[in-house]
Amino acid sequence: MEDSPFGCWGDYSDEYFGGGYYADVLKVAYPYMKAADPEIQVLIGGLLLDCDPGPDRNICSEIGNNDRPPKYLEGILLNGGGDYFDGVSFHAYDYFPYYAPALGDYSNANWGAAWNTTGPVAPLKAAFLRDVLAQYNVTGKYLLNTESGLICGPNGVPPGMEGCESTDDSLFEQTKGRYLVQTYTTSIADGLVGNIWFSLFGWRNSGLLYADSTPRPAYSAFEFARKELQDATFQRKITSYPNVMGYEFLRHTRYMWVMWSLDGVTQTISLPGTPIAIYDFMGNPITPSSVIDITLDPIYLEWYP
Description:
The chain is α+β, with helices and mostly antiparallel strands. It is 25% helix and 24% strand. It is globular, with a radius of gyration of 21 Å.
């Protein structure tokens, strides 16, 4: 393709970024792959989906981006490729405002996502992909976020620049820990089969470990999120409390609520009872009570059925 003499990239001269050509490849390769191993899984992507092409609001056009790359999947389906893959891999990053850092603040303006409106961008991108699949009556495809993260600073700038300081108490590192809980919570609730943080040491300051392999706050948040949310089944979104994001899961014999303040203002709420346990996003216990304060810090509440 015109982008590079190597690899398999998109074609800006094509309305669907070359997706139709890739469908031709899938039609040939997929049957042979399944014949060799019926359990093999073939993924589309990962799709960057760098901006929302509409149709209700074409943010790509608003910000001056080409709207052809996000149409790659549609190009595959338009050329009859829907029967020749099992799932769709995509990437979903949010961005910390290093130029005006504030605790809990992040956004992805290319998709109209923000910490105090939608939460993490991944569900917005997933909804777009599902809409495209539904438009072509393609069912039974799972979605997988193969690159998730909160990034800070321009590409190519050395780690730890101003606004992206690599210290446990920096606004960025503290926000990253909170964001990690939010993106895993919302991804499970949204039915993604996986949400892979990219990466352990990271790019553009997104890592979970420092260069000397010691944990950043987000790594500790990741460890506890895994303990609490592994094998959890989404039950419902909790909508009883204004300006509070809340999700209910069932894990083994306990219900689990994950909650945080959407607008950053402390919300004092009355619960339907007293949880058996409450933890902050780092795994520190909080004394259970039927009246609690919900802040920017995500908390886990455990209940007996």
